[in-house]
Each structure stands twice: as C-alpha cells, then as structure tokens.
Amino acid sequence: xxxxxxxxxxxxxxxxxxxxxxxxxxxxxxxxxxxxxxxxxxxxxxxxxxxxxxxxxxxxxxxxxxxxxxxxxxxxxxxxxxxxxxxxxxxxxxxxxxxxxxxxxxxxxxxxxxxxxxxxxxxxxxxxxxxxxxxxxxxxxxxxxxxxxxxxxxxxxxxxxxxxxxxxxxxxxxxxxxxxxxxxxxxxxxxxxxxxxxxxxxxxxxxxxxxxxxxxxx
Length: 218
What we know:
The radius of gyration is 19 Å and the shape is globular. The protein is an all-alpha fold. The chain has helices at residues 2-8, 11-36, 43-55, 58-88, 103-106, 108-127, 140-147, 151-178, 187-213. It is 75% helix and 0% strand. The model is unreliable at 93-100 (pLDDT under 50).
C-alpha cells in the first residue's frame, strides 16, 4: 500500500491512474452503449437487460461501487494534475499555440466538467427517475423513449455525447502513451483506434436522442 500511495503522489502515478480508470470506464460504456441501442430493435430488450442486471444482486452493487471508485479516482487525478500544471506555470503564455495540440485535448478539461454534470443528470433522469417527466420503475425502454421526448433534454444528451467523443478520442490516445505504448511506428494506428472507439461509443449513444428529435423514437 505504501508503494501505491508513493506512486499516487507522483505526476506519473496520477497519469497512470487516469489511464487505467479511463480504460475501465471505456469498457463499461461500450457494453452500456450496445445494450442501449437495442431500443431500436425492441424497447422490451432494454427492459430485459435491466432486469438481468438487477438479478445479479450483490454483484451489481460491487460493480457499481467499483465503477464509481474509478470515476472518483479519475476526477481527483485530473484535478490534481491541473493544479500542479498551474503551479508549475503561474504566468500564462503570451501566445497560445493551438497547433501543438488537438481540439479534443484543448477542450479536455471543460469536456470533463460537462460530462460530470451529465453523469449526475443522467442518474437522476433514468436511474432514480427524479428528473424524469413520467418515470415507471422497471420499464427501462419506455423511460428512455418518454424521457427523450423533451427536446431540450435530448439536445443536452447530444451535446454531452459530442463532449464524450472528444474526451474519448484524446483520452484513449493519451492512455496508451502513458502506459508505455508510444512508438512512432504505431502512433497513427493508435490515433485511428482512439477515434474509432470514440465515434463508435459516442455515436451509438447519440443515435437515441437524435432519433427522438427527428421523430423516429416514439
């Protein structure tokens, strides 16, 4: 444990923690996206998936706690790294060279804040039903369809998925580099993989609010 805390205290340790927890969240979101798009085939499939998750009992709560822990570690590490960077450079550059970074990297911090707000809203919207206009416990498919009929909510989901895609594209790229997979020979493939996963996950999620806005999800 002492070694883990010692590693955590370093900048490299925090970057590794962000990379590992980011990969955990990516794996979760891939499976979550696949289950969500089943709504286009039959909303009942989403109900069955939700019922299966509830049938896991304690295992589901262990997974939830583990995922929550990954999110917390990711956020804390990101915040602490940001604060370290600011202390190391108390005076801002006179000229900001945007060409040294991608747009996704430039918006990484603000995108992360938006995603944190989105996660809280999403849980209150579809998990507890607190912010849902007509929540029915156990009817996941119906709740998604009805919840997306509120146009401002659907637009917020779309914007959040754009932020997710940008966050993913840079996060996956950076994670591989942090974990030692940094080689000029593979950098282009690594970038393509990062964008591919980002488009797949964020795009898959985005189809649901987009379909609701266009009137195809009723």
